[in-house]
């Protein structure tokens, strides 16, 4: 699940691992294309198919571990 | 005060007592936090299975569901489904205060159990459960709903409590919630919180028409994760109400079924215990678009900070209200600090608790001039440790799921002036001659939340640390003939 933190950072929460961490970088960060590889603060990378629009947060997504 | 090197040496010393494999595992749960080591959750591995043979202090999933999340909901009956002991020995232990007539319209301190016998294990307990649900509803007709809290055997023999609950829910026209919180599930009570959150989501919030016809007021908020231990939720609630907010639900201390059902119609969820109720907060954020905010009502510094952060989510009226509340109570808080700080200044504290307290109470101790030299969670996860390191300033020992042996060795060497942990640790450390407060149940005192709670907190800490009895006893290492440890 992705949400904005109070400080405005993009936060990612992985329920299965109970991991909450900052998303450092989103591969595609445009209004008409959003997603791709998410680089997390702990070094892990998650992949999701890019979406056609910028999602409204909070949003629950299905992602794959790279 | 331990230095970084000494603390690391101490950890190595403690680990040396274990067989190599166990030492390797335990090493991941112990760390020293210094000024620089700030990345990635203190470098701790958390929420892992305890090692067999190690004396852990953790509870079970049933404790997390019945004892923490479901238990305090006062107008529902919570059946401990299984043998009698689990419910009886944990009965009313957490002192979740409530108003109501016990046995008439409130059931918080009562123990309901299906009292499994050999025959129920052999032939299954579903029939008994169905009978029990009928009986309980006949005897206590003012209950608003019933939850079935499974104990280990129910899962082991494969009873279908969901089917019974579904049938009886229709018969009684009340929610009957089957909670699959068998004690063996997960590694600690933490999974019990999660299971309980999920059942509230599935059986309460998702009930048809649960909160239909209710319009959200502009200042409606819910207190999430405050279990009203010694009256905590009440001393928090008055502050929020004084600043102009309307608290429509308390989860779950002194809470009711109607309050739970009403929560999807609030403007903001205020989360005190992140560990036990973040799941439902995240669910309500995703499904109903209700934002949530973690706050901390321990000690005046954190209270003022939290009130301002809460007010920032509302309009100027609430912001002015928050400032007024702070201005009203600050002189009282200053007087308390002025009185107790000279008696407590510089005292060192070690904490080993669960949930939110290993980090939330740090601010309150600092307000009293005390410093926290060690802290740890019984059942915290990585996100808890990340939140903890923001609170810590000095070199601090961090221990996750510490064993009895580890705690004793740490305490022997660090020699803190106060230890805050649970009842199982209390007498061990008192016999070592170190003042101790139970920080699970506030040692039968409380409330500790809010400005009113701070007064009691400061008094209790002073009463414990400066108690003359500590001068009258000789700890084992000072007795004649004892070598220096």
* Average pLDDT figure of chain A: 85
What's the total helix number of chain B?
21
Largest sheet: spatial strand order of chain A = 1-2-3-4-5-6
Relative helix content of chain B: 40-55%
Overall, the morphology of chain B is globular
Q: Give me the Rg of chain B, rounded.
A: 23 Å
Reported by name, the CATH topology of the largest domain in chain B is: Rossmann fold
Derived from helix and strand composition plus strand pairing, the structural class of chain B reads alpha/beta
Give the domain tally of chain B. Answer: 3
Strand order of the largest sheet of chain B: 1-12-11-10-13-14
Classify the beta-strand content of chain A into a percent band.
Answer: over 45%
Characterise this structure.
The complex is a heterodimer of chains A (about 70) and B (about 475). With about 70 residues, chain A is mainly beta. Chain A has strands at about 1-5, 10-15, 20-30, 35-40, 45-50, 65. Chain A has a single domain, classed as OB fold (Dihydrolipoamide Acetyltransferase, E2P) (Beta Barrel), CATH 2.40.50. Chain A is about 0% helix and about 55% strand. Chain A has a six-stranded antiparallel beta sheet, with no helix packed on it. The two termini of chain B are about 15 Å apart. In chain B, strand 11 (about 370-375), helix 17 and strand 12 (about 395-400) form a beta-alpha-beta unit. The relative contact order of chain B is 0.13. With about 475 residues, chain B is an alpha/beta fold. Chain B folds into three domains: about 5-55 and about 345-470, Rossmann fold; about 60-185, 3-Layer(aba) Sandwich (Rossmann fold), CATH 3.40.50; about 220-325, 3-Layer(aba) Sandwich (Rossmann fold). Chain B has a six-stranded mixed beta sheet, with helices on both faces. Chain B has a four-stranded parallel beta sheet with strand order 3-2-4-5, with helices on both faces. Chain B has a four-stranded parallel beta sheet with strand order 7-6-8-9, with helices on both faces. Chain B is globular and about 70 Å long.
